Predict the structure.
Amino acid sequence: MHKVIFDTDPGVDDAMALVFQTCHPEIELIGVTSVFGNATIETTTRNAVYLVERFAAPEVMVAQGAAGPLRGAAPPPIPHIHGHNGLGDIELAALPTQNRAARLDARPAHRFIIDTIRQHPNEINLIAVGPLTNLALALQEAPDIQHLVKQVIIMGGAFGINGVLGNVTPCAEANISADPDAADQVLTAAWKVTAAGLDVTQKAVMSTAYLDNLRQHGGEVGQFVWDVSRLYEQFHRDSADVHGIYVHDSSAVAYLVAPQLYEVRQGAVRVALDGLARGQTIQKPAAMGVPAPSWDGFKMQDVCVDVDVAGFLQLYFDTLTANAKAA
Ligand code: RIB
Ligand code: CA
């Protein structure tokens, strides 16, 4: 079993990544930590609680995280992508106060991350699919966790593979752009990070027909994925003429359970902290011989440079539909 802490800013694709984990038989979701990003911290935390209450095991708790980046202000919410409620404006049944309270851990997210990693040395997979502020705060408070975590997998960055650009600026992807300082700290730490950036996540398109098939065969979860993705799909159609959706955050989960679907490139990664390129993720490939002092000496991280798209789509479909059959 893969033990997971899921750090997230739900978010439509975050919600899809969460149900992917709750349906996967080899994932043990230990806890969920919220962060600002797709919406305010109040909204993303409310959504995380809603999602675990509806789909996760009763013992899975949510710890509320950062309301903004290490430096500067949080980006404004993006209702045209994720809806005013962060979950595609689907109807969210109000949770009884006692259920909500029972799901909320008293600790801030970074403390929950530290304590849980120390409780399970070398067992925790930290999957982070929002701005990396909680992880940076955890590192600052407890540097020992770099050596105690099993691995860190992020959805974040745009590495220019085959000319892939950012989605906030021509060079910056949203999760990194929201807190470049935190991202640079996370990517240069001694723990093992794998980054699934736009280079691979924009290849993994779920078409309308695929989502409809999931709705028909995926039981309650399949219906939820369909419902939650309607407005998100409209955004893709309007903004990029994509007839379907990018499934960004589930790529980080797929990497955990099926790393063979991804081709990775090794090398130190730095993040541009200021100026025109703020938020750009730049890897110095291990094979590159020239000295580059800003990269040299930092941990070699893995950047996903290609994905078996059919394999990824099959994995997601099989996971949700097998769960529906078992229910
Ligand atoms: O750039 C894609 C990322 O930004 C995803 O994590 C999505 O949820 C948004 O936060
Ligand atoms: Ca996200």
